[in-house]
């Protein structure tokens, strides 16, 4: 076995032939270096593949390789509930904002990944609680949005302060990393990823005085769905619809104390990538 790493989990974009080809090459490279790997059943259940398969939740992995786009990475984080070992991100997809290794470069960095020759970038994992009960978490953003084009009324509390009540399409709670996604499109600020912060961005509020707020990562944010809201707002966590919320429900966001650890082999230039997104 190379280094101290045991089995490596490979998570790939569902239904992607390109990702599957890269996964096969990576698996052979790991084997040639004396390592072990398996393909996560959560991403591919094709029994014709020669790569061993196991569930991410049942098979303990010392490291994880994600092959796909941002959605694949966020899905892997969601499955593991933020409790993941170091993750190597190999970009195969339209949106690869989090990725630093392309498909053509992947084999070059596999040995470094197995030997631990990389720098870790930490992404805070934000816990989500609905009416006091844990309901997963995120590293990018969560959206509470009106259903069927209905205006929602949301009371926002940050720490001990209640800055405003939003009457509009909804609200976004994002991390610094997530500030360049939906939050930015909705008029939120670009926040340096090295800042430990949370961003609250109202969606199309009726009130002109309601504006985005950047606050400390350590403060709890509570969003209460007003009892007189005429619809059941949707709770969307890192792009996945979790549930519909009843009027009177409360959603709390807090830093879990856990970070998602991404292995970096070269610097990710966020601002240059933003220019490329336009």
Automatic annotation (TrEMBL):
Catalytic activity: NAD(+) + ATP = ADP + NADP(+) + H(+)
Predominant subcellular localization, coarse grouping: cytoplasm
Cofactor: a divalent metal cation
Annotated GO MF terms: ATP binding; metal ion binding; NAD+ kinase activity
GO BP terms: NAD+ metabolic process; NADP+ biosynthetic process
A single Gene Ontology CC term: cytoplasm
Presence of keyword Nucleotide-binding: yes
UniProt enzyme class: transferase
Enzyme Commission (EC) number: 2.7.1.23
Keyword field contains Cell inner membrane: no
InterPro entries, alphabetized: ATP-NAD_kinase_N, ATP-NAD_kinase_PpnK-typ_C, NAD/diacylglycerol_kinase_sf, NADK
Keywords carried by this UniProt record: ATP-binding, Cytoplasm, Kinase, NAD, NADP, Nucleotide-binding, Transferase
Active site: 70 (proton acceptor)
Binding sites annotated in the UniProt record for NAD(+): 70-71, 75, 140-141, 167, 169, 177, 180-185
Subcellular location(s) per record: Cytoplasm
Its job: Involved in the regulation of the intracellular balance of NAD and NADP, and is a key enzyme in the biosynthesis of NADP. Catalyzes specifically the phosphorylation on 2'-hydroxyl of the adenosine moiety of NAD to yield NADP.
Protein family according to the UniProt entry: Belongs to the NAD kinase family.
Protein name (record): NAD kinase
